[in-house]
Amino acid sequence: MKRLLILLSILLSFALQSQQVLPLNEKFYLDSLQNITKNSAVNTSKASAYFLLSNYYRNSDSLLSKKHLEIGKTFIKNDAFLTAKYDYYEGQYYLDRNKEKAAAFYQKAIKVLSKLKTRESDFYQALAWYGYGVSQKDKEGYPFLVKIVLEKCIPLIKKYGNSRNLGFAYTQLAVILTYNAQLDKAQNYNAQALEILEKGYPKSPELFFTYLNTASNFCYQAKGNEAKKYLDKAEKLIIPYPESSSNSFYYYSKTLYFITKQENLQALPTIEKGLAYTKKFNQNLQAQMFYFNKYDILKKLKRYREAKDVLENILAEKSLVLDLNNRKTIYKQLSALNEEMGNAKEALVWEQRYSKLNDSLSSANVRLEINKLETKFNTAEKERKIATLNAEKNQKDLEVNKKNSYLWGLSLVLLLLVSLLLFLFVIFRKNKKINEQRINDIKQKEELSLTRAILDGEERERERIARDLHDGLGGMLAGVKINFSTWSSNHLHPEKDQEFYKILGKLDNSVSELRHIARNLMPESLINFGLETALNDLCEFYSRKDLDIDFQTIDIKKNLPLPIQLNIYRIVQELLANAIKHAEASNILLQCSQSTENFLITIEDNGKGFDKNIEQTTKSMGLRNLKNRVNYLKGTMEISSDTQGTTINIELSIDGE
């Protein structure tokens, strides 16, 4: 099962790029398009046919794809819809070559299509939004892509009722959810797609790919028998078309099925059949996916030399490793493989490459967040300067008014003297209130800045310690473990020297524990999967036989800024630690919910309680740090504690952060 999940990132990188759905009768499809380009007298038909031919060849023959695109452009003749279609297919052409360029063309198409309001324009607008989401995946992450599909693509298609396009949109969403290990949700969308396509489009290519995606989903759940049902249905659709390039996708899904059933010897000839199709149709990325499966099987069969050759060929070919996450996975596999073969030095080299690339990817995410924070800070600084200038202008205006009033008072002498004194008194009181308010605002800003600096410094120190543990001590222990493994395989006997191997196992556990501590200092699940998943992992970490933690969530969004998510995570971490360590609770209820402007945290335990004023009587920093983080998010905290247990309610402001 773990090996199947390793392939998920590679599978998705291809699935997202291959969003074009070709008819299973591919030859008839191509002949029809070419016939239109030669015989049709209608410019609209000719342009559309050339665009579709460009899309067909974009992954297999880039020169021919670009040629068809440019020929199609000559038939546009000031037609707004055709212009938008050209921009969309231009985005398709650049999607795998230059993502920023592709994104610009998709947005250009969306701008025109959004004004046309026809069924076809809405369909192409949905496609353009999907392409834009894919082009921004590496920069914005998968939650952004899911948001695009749910809020842009599906609503545009769904307003025209059930259609093959809606069915396939559900299937694509299921693929993304499968990659993020949300297999049940993915299966739900696959089921919706099947309900539409089986009823209305029983022989469509969309249904064929939905069958394959459903089978793959069951494979990742280790449900081979369920996967076989849908694989057989897909086979019935593809059998009449042995010349279709879609056969390579069928054999790929069949390979996953054999791997799930642990029928490795049957999987190898299936891979060779799939490779034959990939070579015939220049499906380079698909071919590399087959090779990765071949490596996985050869490793299981302990044919290490052949497995190593396959992985090194994948790196040399480069199609698959353009995605840095795929490259990282392959580095890790090469390290493990060389360790199995007793090549300690080479194993350590690949492990170092893996760690360096992994850290580089993490740093890129951090830089992205820093840039966002910097932009936000600069905006706030400009607004502050504007407010200061306005205040100075108001003050000068006020001084002019006072002088004029004084002159008028002198001219009216005694008659207006009382009125003048009264006016000056009112002004004085007003200025005093304004100054007092300004002083309070400055104090609040200074307190907030101090809290921000303390919390930011704390998080930087956690990150530094985690990095030192992971890269320094972790790397050294990993090297020691690999060297011991290599030495023992040549000098010791597994049965006679069991005590040594027990010690070696403890060393391996120590490396894992060290990396677990590093992840706890800077939680990877928070960065990769969001707040809800990170909090769930935190509850599972603290749970044990004599402690039951009931974690409940309501509407936690994944688009919260990372600094807010991190502070909420630290607040909950402190609450749980206090309940377990100090209150000695055996039952804990943790509820987290989110509204538009607020985030609510409630924790209840059956512990021995504590004095709410403990921070004033002891040197403990726990409750004080907790209050600092609550104040940082402009929140409030209520504590109710006695010998029967403790209840803490926290309300945080997340609007405008």
Automatic annotation (TrEMBL):
Catalytic activity: ATP + protein L-histidine = ADP + protein N-phospho-L-histidine
The EC number(s) this enzyme carries: 2.7.13.3
Database matches in SUPFAM superfamilies: ATPase domain of HSP90 chaperone/DNA topoisomerase II/histidine kinase (SSF55874), TPR-like (SSF48452)
Coiled-coil spans in chain: 363-390
Keyword Glycoprotein: no
Transmembrane segments: 406-428
Keywords: ATP-binding, Coiled coil, Kinase, Membrane, Nucleotide-binding, Phosphoprotein, Signal, Transferase, Transmembrane, Transmembrane helix, Two-component regulatory system
Annotated ranges, domain Histidine kinase: 464-656
Highest taxon above the source species: Bacteria
CDD domains, per database record: HATPase_UhpB-NarQ-NarX-like
Signal peptide positions on this chain: 1-18
UniProt key word Glycoprotein: no
Name the record gives this protein: histidine kinase
